[in-house]
Amino acid sequence: MDTQIATPQAVRDFIDARNALFRAIDFDHAQGISANEIARVATPAISRPIVLSYLTAKQLHTDARNALRTAGLEGPFGIGITGQVGRGSRTVHLVLAYDPQEIDQQPDTLVTQVTDTLRTADIDIRLPEGRNSIADALWDGEPVPLHRT
Q1: Degrees, nearest 5: CA angle 73-134-127
Q2: What is the C-alpha separation between 76 and 87, in angstroms, rounded?
Q3: Helices (DSSP H) in the chain: which residue ranges?
Q4: What's the pTM value of the predicted model, to 2 decimals?
């Protein structure tokens, strides 16, 4: 008996549909539709908290990248976002993009510059748990969480 399992194709179809939904959410939000309206419309397919969390993280990610770009700091630093599209909460974080050996400035000076830059964009850098300084965390390769002030 030669039977074909339908589940793998259904899973691919589901993931494709979920990705298409989030592309549409991104498009609508870029067109100026409010996050609340998008969440209301998307609620039959995905929960309101997931949509709002996703859009909040995406906006924070965009704002942080723009702030770094404007200040000329997007070389040494990068902005990352965790999680898969449509799955749980996402976090936005700052990372050191260069090898610490390639950076001429003192870590504390550079961290002060990036902290001040992000603060002007209403973004706060949080010290990772168990760390004594943001510079130490970044120079050790650890992502540092970002939040709205």
Answers
A1: 120
A2: 30
A3: 7-30, 35-42, 48-71, 107-120, 134-139
A4: 0.83
Contact between residue 122 and residue 69 where contact means Cβ atoms under 8 Å apart? no
Mean pLDDT, all residues of the chain:
90
Biggest CA–CA distance in the chain, Å, is: 70
CA angle 27, 33, 36 (to 5 degrees): 115
3-state class (DSSP) for residue 101? helix
Q: What pLDDT, on the 0 to 100 scale, is given for residue 93?
A: 95
In angstroms, rounded to a whole number, what is the distance separating the alpha carbons of residues 107 and 135?
A: 6
Given the structure tokens 């259904």, which residue do they identify? 10
Mind giving me the DSSP string for 81-99?
E-S-TTSS---EEEEE-S-
Do the beta carbons of residue 22 and residue 85 sit within 8 Å?
yes
Strands 144-148 and 123-125: antiparallel
CB 69 within 8 A of CB 114: no
- C-alpha 51/C-alpha 90 separation (Å) is 11
Q: How far apart are CA 60 and CA 93, in angstroms?
A: 10
Are 125 and 112 spatial neighbours (Cβ–Cβ below 8 Å)? no
